[in-house]
Amino acid sequence: MPDVPAVIASPRARALALCALLLAALYAVAALAPLPYTVMQPGITADTLGKYRGVQVIAISGRPVRQTTGQLRMTTIEATPPGERISLLHALAAWPDPDRAVVPSEAVYPAGRSVRQVDLQNTAEMRQSQDAATAAALHHLGLQPDQVKVTLHLADVGGPSAGLLFTLGIIDKLAGDGSGGDLTGGRVIAGTGTIDSAGRVGPVGGVALKTQAAARDGATVFLVPRAECSEAKVNTPKGLRLIPVDTLDGTLASLAALRSGGRLPTC
After folding, report:
1. Distances in whole angstroms, Cα of residue 20 to Cα of each of 13, 27, 47, 91, 158
2. Which domain does 150 fall in, by range?
3. Does residue 4 lie within any of the structural domains?
4. What are 157-175's pLDDT values in tens digits?
5. How far apart are CA 125 and CA 121, in angstroms?
6. What is the pLDDT of residue 33?
7. CB within 8 A of 224, min separation 6: which ones?
8. Is the pLDDT of residue 27 over 60?
9. What is the pTM of this model?
10. N or C: less crowded end of the chain, CB within 10 Å?
11. What is the pLDDT of residue 109?
């Protein structure tokens, strides 16, 4: 049998093969290298009328507390932990997903601030939000802080965005709709928004992800700060009704219209 001649690659072919290997290695490094971005996604929701991790979210003493039906669910978003940078592959997979958002890490974890500092700020904002929510609810009900004690428990959740839902929960537990019924009308209602002691509702961010969390946990109505209607309408889950709000009184009026089948504002 005649010998089969060996195939000897030319210098040009060897150079091209080496370049291809180097290029593939560079692509692999780029795809796996950590990026200064964070992936955000729908987080937990919690019923302010019920318990969270076995603890009553709203505890009231000094006044009778009503037995309520329905739910008032505050909503959250989750972010990639600060020490866990995402890769290009991770980012490309998350970008088209309506349940996730890719944002610069500094938007969540400001440069120069430690994780502990961010956590402390979020905790302080949550406490301030709880105080404002209690003040707004008691003012609406004509009660003084020395007449009733309200304690809010929501472990491991920071930031001010649960203010509106805390206020509604306190009012529902103490007075309901004023005629013996519930604010919710038995529905699962979710929402977000800051609130101040005067009852003004403010925007919070991440609304498009919070609507996903709300629908996932059974809500059919979502209370959204009016200034964030446009964001809330992006990929709104099917069957979730958006109700814009900007004050506590306006929110209560909308809930009354919802219970009675009246006309409701829309985004």
Report:
1. 11, 10, 56, 25, 49
2. 43-78+129-260
3. no
4. 766 788 999 999 999 999 9
5. 6
6. 47
7. 191, 192, 193, 207, 211, 232, 242, 243, 244, 245, 267
8. no
9. 0.80
10. N
11. 67
